[in-house]
Amino acid sequence: MIKLFSHITMVFFLMTSVLSAQKTEVCKTCEISTIARAVEKAKPFDTIEVRAGTYKEYNIGITKPLTITGEGNPVIDGEHKGEIITIRSDNVTLAGFTLVNVGTSYTTDYAAIRVVKSKDFNIRNNTLERLFFGIYLEKARQGKVLNNTIKGDAVNEYNSGNGIQLWYSNNVEVSGNTVQNVRDGIYLEFSDNIEIRNNKSIDNLRYGLHFMFSNHDTYTENLFENNGAGVAVMFSKFIKMRDNTFRKNWGPSSYGLLLKEITDSELTRNTFESNTQGVRAEGVSRMTFTENDFANNGYAVKIQGACYSNTFSRNNFLYNTFDLSYSGRINENNFDHNYWSDYYGYDLNRDGTGDVPYRPVKLFSHMTNRIPEAIVLLRSTFTGLLDFSEKVTPVFTPPGLMDNAPEMKKIIW
Amino acid sequence: MVSIQNLNKAFGRNQVLDNLSLQINQKGVTAILGPNGSGKTTLIKSILGMTIPDKGTITINGRDIKKDVLYRENLDYLPQIADFPDNLKVKELIKMIKDLRNKPARDETLIRFFGLEPFLDKKLNTLSGGTRQKVNLILAFMFDSPLMILDEPSSGLDPVSLIRLKEWINMEKAQGKIILVTSHIMSFVEEIAENIAFLLDGKIYFNGSLSQLRTKTGQEDLEHAIASLLLPSTPLRDRGKPPLRSCPAPNLKL
Amino acid sequence: MLKIIKYSFFDLVRSRWSYAYFLFYLLLAAVLLFLNNNLSGAIITLMNVNIILVPLIATVFGVMYHYNSREFTNLLLAQPLKRSAIFTGQYLGIAGSLSLSLVLGLGIPFAAYGLFRSTMIWNFAILMITGVALTFIFTSLAFNIALSNENRIKGFGYAILLWLLLAVVYDGIFLLLLASFQEYPLEKFSLAATVLNPIDLSRILILLKLDISALLGYTGAVFKQFFGTSTGSILSSLMLLLWIVLPLWRMRKTAERKDF
User: Fold this and answer.
1) What are the angstrom distances between the C-alpha of B229 and each of A103, A383, B35, B40, B208?
2) Which chain regions cross the lipid bilayer (chain C) (predicted)?
């Protein structure tokens, strides 16, 4: 009842305020020539239109509902002095700006745009360059971060920040953004019900996308390319990962997707291409891996232990150096009904699945799990012979670990 | 002039040359004869430097052959088996050997002499055994060296070529060369050789002129003379089969 | 000696084996490049060929040539030539002609593909360098075996055995040692074991040039660091050179003492 009442008052409040809202213009030659001054003078629900030009301002605090838009791409130059815009009010829209030169500090996480304990914000069509942190949502909720471009110049992890960071924030939509050359492209910590869609996270120092202790989140149709270590989902539950592309995350400790201590999640229709490790899983349970393409990876899937009750089905494993690396003697995961390009079995009864099971774990990859140094024998004649003999008569690889019904044709999804 | 002093050579436990000494000073053809396994080939190869003796010295014209290989500049050798690189044409092989020796050669005279013109552009592996032997002869005689070693020169030759070969050897003899020959065809040896060096069990058993050998054994026929060298106690006047000796049993095919 | 190199070289260059070898590489590289269209993949496949086939062919060719040219060798021995010159010349001739087949057979398709404009040229270069080095190494080993064994069957047997030892068995023992000393740090050991075997060394030198080296993980990083330094590259070149020079030295000594 109280909730309903509050809604009605809000709608009412909104209507009156929209009706009474005013528009303020800011430009170099206008009456009001700084954004800070315009914000200060504006009434709640006013609109501030900023004209083209460079505004050397920082620590702009927004404490009332406002719509601030840039016309002709105005630039706000923080001159490395600190944070540029801090939003501490609900219903703030910020659109069409280029924000440059955020201050760098070892004690304070300065951001280009920070949202603190607010809801219904809308940050869109902004370009952020030469930054420390980009968009920082702190205990924010029900907002949108749309179509922003964040281009950092990070060199070292210790003195660089993240592109879009969500901390204790819920019900936020992050979509259409491009983030490159920062530490983590998008970082979530203790943030639930987040939807991350159609973003590009490229060339970042550490992760393209990084989850920590965040549940019930969804990320779809994103591109993660050439990041230091790929995407990491850690200590999280009920995550849906769909239609994403993980490409060229290549390096000795790199991977497309790291899953660590995660349960009850799904990975569907994603493409993993040319990653050192496509998916690396540690402590993953009750997860489904369906209709993903793993192509030209070093290891398509590397299972590092304590992974139970996961199902891999209808995935395509195409021309990976190793399709599957598995540590441990007992397999509690299901690998039936996948397509493996290395499968050379036959299908006499023409039911579309091979009559002989496929064993995706090569003996050599099994050995390198126990003796990491043995990897120096990669592609030597001896290990080739080992793999061949193990294929013919399996002795060492976990006995149950096989696809009992390998598909004969590549799965179209 | 070839001088061999106390030559020893063993292959494993088999003492092939046993303190052998031999002087060949006389010009003309010296035939080195002996049963199979008597050390003929080892001796020849030692002179050529292909077999390294265990003990003893060989000097040619006063120069120790161990010291340098250049003594072979003045030595021609006809190997027993005429085997050559298969891919080469006759012409190319001759050119190659000339190139390696880097000496004036009388190859054209020899080619005409042995009638080898039609084969010059043929590859060596297409030639018959006799033709290969002719190529072999040309290579050996080409450089006009004062010392010649011929290992089974007559093998595989047709009668006409054999006559030619004898003619050529006689011509070389007339020039005052030292020629060492091994052969198992005694009639051939009889025709060309003045001197016989007979080897048995790694030693020189007889070294002297053909007439000395005849006198010593009382045999006119060389084959019988040699046989009676081997078996002095057995009368061989009757031309029967070569008799067998019990121990050791050298093969009498010379 | 130059003349002998020349004659052995041309003798082999004109043999059908040389052509077969050359055509095999030509065909292989062409198929890999133009049907697959993947330069890095082609180089990996060629690396496998490099570490299996090149040593095997060099071994078999070396032994075969030595036995087949015995009479020719005898002919040369009667000429005023040094023995060491004869055998070194023959060796350089055969190793040279095999290398030529390899370099041309792989080089022509790569050149036609436009390699020399791409950044892959260094990967290709290391492939060629190791291929040529392995040819020289295994030809000299083969010559040693052939010189020491008058019996052809034995000679061939030992040669194949040696190839098997270096190409396969060595790695087996290597793996066995790694497995039995798991609890010790093994980077230095595996580095040493790799450097000591020319086939392993070639494999690692090529792998490190390719993207696939990322799979080598921490051990790979140690290797990359080592081979990236000048000490590393000098040591590995020295090792390859040693594998050529030592057998060659032994071959010359054997030849001097041998009875023909």
Assistant:
1) 115, 69, 11, 16, 13
2) 20-36, 42-65, 91-115, 121-147, 159-181, 226-249
Give C75 to chain A, closest Cα distance, Å: 41
User: By the 8 A CB rule, do A323 and A342 touch?
Assistant: yes
The answer to whether C177 contacts chain A (CB < 8 Å) is: no
pLDDT digits (tens, 9 = 90+) for B1-27: 788 889 899 888 888 888 888 888 888
User: Distance (Å, rounded) from C-alpha C7 to C-alpha C12?
Assistant: 8
Convert the pLDDT of each residue in A280-289 to its tens digit.
999 999 999 9
List, as ranges, residues 47-76 from C with C-beta within 8 Å of B. Answer: 68-72, 74-76
* Neighbour count for residue B164 (Cβ, 10 Å): 17
Q: How many helices (H) and strands (E) does chain C have?
A: 12, 0
For B157, the 3-state DSSP assignment is coil
Return the minimum-mean-pLDDT range out of A134-138, A271-275, C8-12, C18-22.
C8-12
Q: Verify whether the Cβ–Cβ distance C72 to B71 is below 8 Å.
A: no
CA pseudo-torsion sign B70, B90, B174, B181: positive
Q: Which chains touch B (3 or more CB pairs under 8 A)?
A: C
User: Do B71 and C15 count as a contact with CB atoms less than 8 A apart?
Assistant: no
Quick check: B26 and B37 in contact, CB under 8 A?
no
- Whether the pLDDT of residue C111 is over 60: the answer is yes
Compute φ and ψ for A315, nearest 5 degrees: -95, 155
Most confident option among A27-36, B67-76, B222-231: A27-36
Tens digits of per-residue pLDDT, B52-73? 888 888 988 888 888 777 788 8
Contact between residue C27 and residue C108 where contact means Cβ atoms under 8 Å apart: no
Do the Cβ atoms of A376 and C212 come within 8 Å?
no
Are the Cβ atoms of B83 and C72 closer than 8 angstroms? Answer: yes
Give the per-residue pLDDT at A17: 54
Q: Do C186 and A373 touch (CB under 8 A)?
A: yes
Could you tell me if B121 lies within 8 Å of chain C, comparing CB atoms?
Answer: no
Task: Give the integer Cα–Cα distance in Å for C58 and C102.
Answer: 11
Torsion of CA C236, C238, C243, C244, to 10 degrees: 130
Whether residue A352 contacts residue A409, with contact meaning beta carbons closer than 8 Å, is answered with: yes
How far is residue A75's CA from residue A53's CA, in Å, rounded to a whole number? 6
Full DSSP string of C18-86:
HHHHHHHHHHHHHHHHHHH--HHHHHHHHHHHHHHHHHHHHHHHHHHHHHHTHHHHHHHHTSS--HHHH
Domains of chain B in sequence order? 2-230 (3.40.50.300)
- Candidates B50, B89, B180: best to mutate against C (most CBs of C within 10 A) is B50
**Residue B239, pLDDT score:** 42
Which of C68, C70, C71 is the best residue to mutate to test the B interface, defined by the most B CB atoms within 10 Å of its own CB? Answer: C71
Query: SS3 of A40, please?
Result: helix
Chain C hits for A375, CB-CB cut-off 8 Å, are 215-217, 219-220
Q: Is A373 buried (19+), middle (13-18) or exposed (0-12) by CB count in 10 A?
A: buried
Q: Which of A321, A379, A382 sits opposite C48 (nearest CB)?
A: A379
Instruction: Residue C195: name the closest of C163, C241, C239 by CA.
Output: C239
Nearest-Cα distance to chain C for B219, in Å, is: 37
B65 contact partners, CB below 8 Å, separation of at least 6? B47, B49, B58, B59, B71
Nearest chain C residue to A319, by CA:
C41
CATH topology of domain A22-184: Pectate Lyase C-like (2.160.20)
Instruction: Report how far residue A99's alpha carbon sits from residue C10's, in angstroms, rounded to the nearest whole number.
Output: 72
Check CB contact of C181 with chain B, cutoff 8 Å. no
Quick one: how far is CA C127 from the chain centroid? 11
- pLDDT of A28 reads 87
Query: Does the ipTM surpass 0.85?
Result: no
